[in-house]
Amino acid sequence: MVLLSILLIVTAAHSQTERTPFAPVPANQRASLKKRLNAYTEAFCKKDWAVLYDLVSDTNKVSVQDPKVRVDKDTFVRDMQDTADWQRLLKFTPVRTEIPDWLNLIQLRTETPDQVKSTPVREEIPDWLFDIYGCVEIPDGNQTLKRIGAVRAVWEHDNWYFTNWESVGPFEPCSHLSNPAWKPQLPLRLDNPMSQLTCDLYTCEL
Question: Is 167:134 a contact under the CB 8 Å cutoff?
């Protein structure tokens, strides 16, 4: 079963394109993920932080250190007012979806959430968790920059939510994603909450 899962993951990675960007995602969930991802991108583009609040995962709302520390919608909207242009998505065109390498090592995935078998030490991991790579467009003054970026999608509360998005550094053109062997040169910060919310969820030193 494990060998079969690995083979399926490798095959999916080599066959994904803009036409089939969500290959590892169960087929009956791809349309829902696409719709939610479009709404997430549109909320960033329009600076509609109230709508974005309902699309971001608990990573951006609940402190891991103290579950009693939570970010409500009013606080979220206030914090997101400080979003810089380079942090704001104008467009995200998904090309490839991958299961994070660390998750492959500790979680055996099956076709539906009810069938997922987690290791006892990591029961807190969401049933589904995917890193979606694509071409991001971000504002730069009067221009628009295009580069490779990624967003993490997690299945929470019976729907798709998103932890964080980030552009790949150093800069790489979107055309590099056509290479099935492509990997980011530096790890992306997709596990943590968005930087605008960090001081509300964790203790910040001034």
Answer: no
